[in-house]
Amino acid sequence: MNANIPNYRSECPLSTALDVIGDKWSLLIVRDMCMNKARYGDFLSSPEGIPTNILANRLRRLEVTGIIHKKLYQTKPLRYEYSLTTKGANLLPVLQQLAIWAHQHVPECGVPPEWFLSAKPENLVKNY
Amino acid sequence: MNANIPNYRSECPLSTALDVIGDKWSLLIVRDMCMNKARYGDFLSSPEGIPTNILANRLRRLEVTGIIHKKLYQTKPLRYEYSLTTKGANLLPVLQQLAIWAHQHVPECGVPPEWFLSAKPENLVKNY
User: Fold this and answer.
1) Cis bond leading into A113, ω under 30°?
2) Nearest-angstrom CA–CA distance, B9 and A54
3) Residue A47 CA to chain centroid, in angstroms?
4) Would you state the pLDDT for residue A119?
5) Cα B43 to Cα A125: distance, rounded to the nearest angstrom
6) Would you state the pLDDT for residue B5?
7) pLDDT at B2
8) d(CA B47, CA B66)
9) What is the value of ipTM here, to two decimals?
10) Can you list the residues of chain A whose pLDDT is less than 50?
């Protein structure tokens, strides 16, 4: 995926949402941030095994589209911590509905944790 | 995307959902079916301009994963109509949350229609 702001295929809001986060990885990074993961190595350690080049691309893309922001926490070498913006936190209902759907319809998958299903976007970010 | 049943990257229900429908096109076909589009040409005529090879791949994939089913309506040449299963109709809350999110956060996009936001999965399929 191109790391710049996407070209929107139509004015349809669903299509627009998919232009921004319609891939297999972006929402997993958002999920990790809902669990207070913040650093590059945290995301790499998730069980799906995101490749480093895809992680770098998606972090850049999520930043450009205003879903996450990054903050320097170390200068030698440069290291960043990532967190959700309000726009990013507001993806939580999408994540919850996707998890509910998979749990209902895909026998292979696990149970969504209760804390996750009852979480609120406003509790995921300071200054919501 | 491979048109067979996906390999699941983890037991996480969100990850599992994205293994099934985590791409830019699958949910647009589900959206079209929510609007009673049923035939190959109907999907091709949507404003996003899905390429024919991607449409064929995604219809096959949605069928293999039990989200849609197809019914023959013409034999010479073979032509099919597609419709949502219960599993497919239950993606509606995901679509609704994605549309609400884009409408709230992406200024370029249009307003989700009221009928869409108030639609219910059980009204999208016979024998729900």
Assistant:
1) no
2) 15
3) 15
4) 97
5) 39
6) 75
7) 74
8) 26
9) 0.96
10) none
Give the mean pLDDT of B94-106.
98
Smallest Cβ distance to B95: which of A14, A24, A104?
A14
- Contact list, B114 vs chain A (CB under 8 Å): none
Of B16, B22, B98, the CB nearest to A23: B22
Q: How far is the alpha carbon of B72 from chain A, nearest alpha carbon, in Å?
A: 26
The CA-based diameter of chain A, rounded to the nearest angstrom, is 48
* pLDDT value of position B84: 98
- Does the pLDDT at position B116 exceed 90? yes
Q: What count of CB pairs under 8 Å joins A to B?
A: 157
> Can you give the pLDDT at residue B127?
81
